[in-house]
Write a structure and sequence with these properties.
Blueprint lengths: L8 E2 L3 E4 L6 H9 L18 H16 L4 E7 L7 E6 L7 E8 L8 H16 L4 E7 L3 H9 L3 E2 L11 E7 L6
Parallel strand pairs: 5-6
Antiparallel strand pairs: 1-2, 2-3, 3-4, 4-5, 6-8, 7-8
Bound molecules: coenzyme A.
């Protein structure tokens, strides 16, 4: 599994591109804004509180990409370069058959179907390019928007699994062959 060269993804309204260091302002916003982060719990060392933290985050993502550890796409509207959100595949299993999806979106762009469009691009990439067997999502039990996004797009809650690191998380799963079937 090799994430370089970076695979850009496009849909009717969106471009999903590599993060740039000039995205640091927006990354800081997305990772610190109260609405976006209401249901996201990160350990202290993964928090983004300053521009310098945001730059470090972007550089870490570039390094992870180079070493095929994880892949983050910046979400933009097709005719604009400004980021409106991000979506990633990370936490790959050792055998590279399972990965976790994560996403965030500027609240100005919520309720327009944008994350549904981005998620479908990433599911298609994960299953058809990376040949994943399963994609998981960990989301807070109170995060209704995220739960709706997942169930609407074919994810199924696995009630028998628990997130040992965060008891308020639910674990959703989607398997290869389920997308768009
Ligand atoms: C989770 C999150 C990405 C969901 O975003 P969203 O905009 O609600 O997601 P969607 O893309 O599915 O759009 C939802 C609504 O847009 C509406 N919509 C409007 N125009 C649309 C269009 N052209 N196409 C499709 N849907 C459209 C849909 O009706 C849909 O509402 P419904 O689900 O009630 O039917 C967003 O709430 C977010 O960023 N939250 C903060 C970060 C977060 O919690 N991340 C998850 C951590 S696990």
């Amino acid at each position: 599994m090799n994430f370089t060269p970076f695979t850009e993804l496009t849909s009717a309204r969106l471009s999903l591109r590599k993060l740039k260091e000039s995205d640091a302002d927006t990354i800081l916003f997305l990772r610190s804004n109260e609405i976006v982060n209401r249901y996201i719990k990160r350990p202290e060392h993964r928090q983004t509180k300053t521009i310098s933290d945001a730059l470090n985050f972007i550089r870490t993502q570039h390094n992870n990409l180079e070493h095929s550890i994880s892949i983050v796409w910046g979400i933009t509207l097709k005719d604009k370069s400004e980021l409106i959100g991000t979506i990633c595949l990370w936490n790959f299993s050792v055998d590279k058959k399972v990965a976790e999806v994560g996403y965030d979106l500027n609240p100005k762009f919520h309720n327009k179907g944008i994350m549904t469009e981005a998620l479908n691009l990433v599911l298609d990439f994960g299953f058809n390019q990376l040949k994943l067997q399963k994609i998981e999502a960990f989301t807070d039990t109170k995060n209704e928007n995220s739960k709706r996004l997942l169930t609407k797009n074919g994810f199924i809650l696995n009630p028998s699994r628990k997130d040992v690191d965060n008891e308020s998380n639910l674990i959703y799963e989607i398997f290869d062959g389920i997308v768009n079937s």
